[in-house]
Design brief:
260 residues, mainly alpha, 13 helices, globular, binds protoporphyrin IX containing FE
């Protein structure tokens, strides 16, 4: 049989994956399912793109990194905008099917956690919420022990003359990224003297800001939909989410802005 639009995209399978649980049916549950599935697809693409960025950094491919950061920050903007759609769900409408979610929560999104780990925001304690021995758990453990985008960014900077302190190189890579003054000083020099690198750094900052925007929009979404209730994942809800708010992926890029 010839390849068609539907067979190439496996649409029969894809469109069969939305299974609302409410009985009698609740109109808005379909939106809730589709929007989360759409986010999971964006997470998948972000992971794919950041794997490439890591290779671009290691191999000093500036234009490759620029092109892909342009893409990741544009996807991130779309991810932020999608929150508008979820906000058409009113608190009462969400309550009408919230029980059907039982303990399911975005908290358990393994791809989101993978993305955090890949970017360098490593919180090993988050593994507690994933079923041990499952393939997802294994994926997450692998990400935890792999070098992050920031570790690979150091390789890139080194190839452009920045000194990367030995203690940064020798650090335990299962821990989150830490700001570093020597790296920041090196970045400042490049920012001032290398216009093509400045383009890359601005795109990285765009992405970073976008990720923080997503966290902010998600918190406000949660606040307006469930207020101070606990999350279905069992956390304190808004209070838990606020801990990661304003946390940069590339702290050294933010540390120097007043000197530019
Ligand atoms: C009515 C809409 C939503 C509500 C009420 C809600 C609520 C929450 C709450 C309360 C948490 C904290 C963890 C817990 O459950 O205890 C959480 C975490 C999370 N949610 Fe949502 N959420 C909503 C929509 C979304 C959407 C559309 C996404 C997109 C994928 C999403 C992704 C996440 C992620 C990734 C986390 C973990 C965040 C982190 O660990 O920093 N949520 N959500």
């Amino acid at each position: 049989m010839d390849l068609t639009y539907a067979t190439y995209l496996k649409l029969d399978q894809l469109l069969d994956l939305q299974a609302p649980r409410s009985q009698p049916p609740e109109h808005d549950e379909m939106l809730f399912i589709i929007v989360h599935q759409a986010y999971e697809l964006w997470f998948k693409l972000q992971l794919h793109e950041f794997e490439k960025i890591k290779q671009d950094f290691v191999n000093n491919r500036l234009y490759g990194a620029i092109a892909t950061f342009k893409r990741t920050r544009t996807i991130m903007k779309t991810m932020v905008e999608q929150v508008d759609i979820v906000e058409t769900l009113t608190p009462m409408s969400f309550s009408s099917f919230r029980d059907r979610l039982e303990n399911a929560s975005g908290f358990q999104s393994v791809q989101f956690r993978e993305l955090e780990f890949l970017l360098g925001y490593k919180r090993p304690q988050m593994l507690r919420y994933v079923q041990p021995e499952s393939p997802a758990y294994q994926r997450l453990v692998t990400r935890l022990h792999e070098r992050s985008v920031v570790d690979c960014f150091y390789d890139f900077l080194e190839q452009h003359g920045v000194t990367i302190p030995a203690e940064l190189r020798a650090r335990d890579i299962t821990l989150p990224t830490v700001p570093n003054e020597t790296v920041a000083a090196g970045l400042l020099e490049l920012y001032k003297n290398e216009p093509d690198l400045e383009i890359l750094f601005e795109l990285m900052t765009d992405f970073d800001e976008g990720f923080q925007e997503w966290r902010y929009r998600h918190i406000k979404l949660v606040e307006r939909t469930i207020g101070s209730k606990r999350g279905t994942g069992g956390s304190l809800g808004v209070e838990f989410l606020k801990k990661s708010l304003f946390l940069p992926v590339f702290p050294d890029l933010w540390a120097i802005r007043h000197k530019l």
